Amino acid sequence: MGAIFIETLFGFIALFVIVKVVGKTQISQLTPFDFISALIFGELVGNGIYDDEVTLKKIAFAVFLWGGLLLVTELITQKFKGTRAFFEGKPTIIIHKGQLNKEEMRKNKLDINQLLHLLRAKGAFSLKEVDYALLETDGSISILKKTLDQTPSRKDFNLLAEDVVLPMTLVTDGEIVWDNLHEAGLDENWLSAEFKKQNIISHKDVLYAEYKKGEALYVQTF
After folding, report:
1. Cβ-proximal residues to 121 (8 Å cutoff; 6+ apart), any chain
2. In what order do the strands lie in the sheet with 99-100?
3. Shared-domain flag, residues 137 and 190
4. Measured between alpha carbons, how far is 143 from 125 in angstroms, rounded to an integer?
């Protein structure tokens, strides 16, 4: 028990010191590399504490070696700007002038549902509100709404409140979202007719289709 106490105390102090030296990166700002580094830190200390064959000296060596490598990486990225994209990654434009960048979504393993979730977290409940969207290195998303969807609000002009209508996704990646279609009180015939109005033959040609009551069907093809 005494050995576990000493090793745990040492691990706590060592990690505290290394985090202070390397930097105060917040959890919400972690890049994938930072996240993996944090996991390895925990494994190094945890395995050392509960493995009788691992001495305090070995724990110290492994922890401070890993901390040293992280510190060197941070110093390199600060001194040589050209290495930042390699070590930290760089933001990716997912939506450009209102159009989805399917190729960048594929490279970043990002599907439509994930993108919509990220947009909603930023207050954009409709894809057509967004002019630009950037996928940041930590996996979050930054958006720039179209001018008509930006503030000021209706309240600024003393306008009456209107009913809030939630946009519904009807097609993603060429597949009809049947639950949403039925919930909206629509059917496949209505959807096909709407596509024909926009010279679209089949829903399989549609990357994304969004319905909002009172407005025309918003469609983006592959």
Report:
1. 141
2. 99-100, 92-96, 130-135, 141-145
3. no
4. 12
Helices (H) then strands (E): counts for the chain: 8, 8
Q: How many residues does the chain have?
A: 222
Contact between 121 and 135 under an 8 Å Cβ cutoff? The reply is no
Residue at a domain's end among 38, 69, 86: 86
Boundaries of domain holding 203: 163-221
- Per-residue pLDDT, 199: 93
Lookup: tokens for 115: 């993108």
End-to-end CA distance of the chain: 63
Q: Which pLDDT belongs to residue 27?
A: 43
Q: Whole-number mean pLDDT of the chain?
A: 80
Mean pLDDT for the stretch of residues 97-125: 90
- How far is Cα 13 from Cα 17, in angstroms, rounded to an integer? 6
Residue with tokens 């919509």: 116
67-77: pLDDT as tens digits: 777 778 778 87
Residue finishing a domain among 86, 104, 123: 86
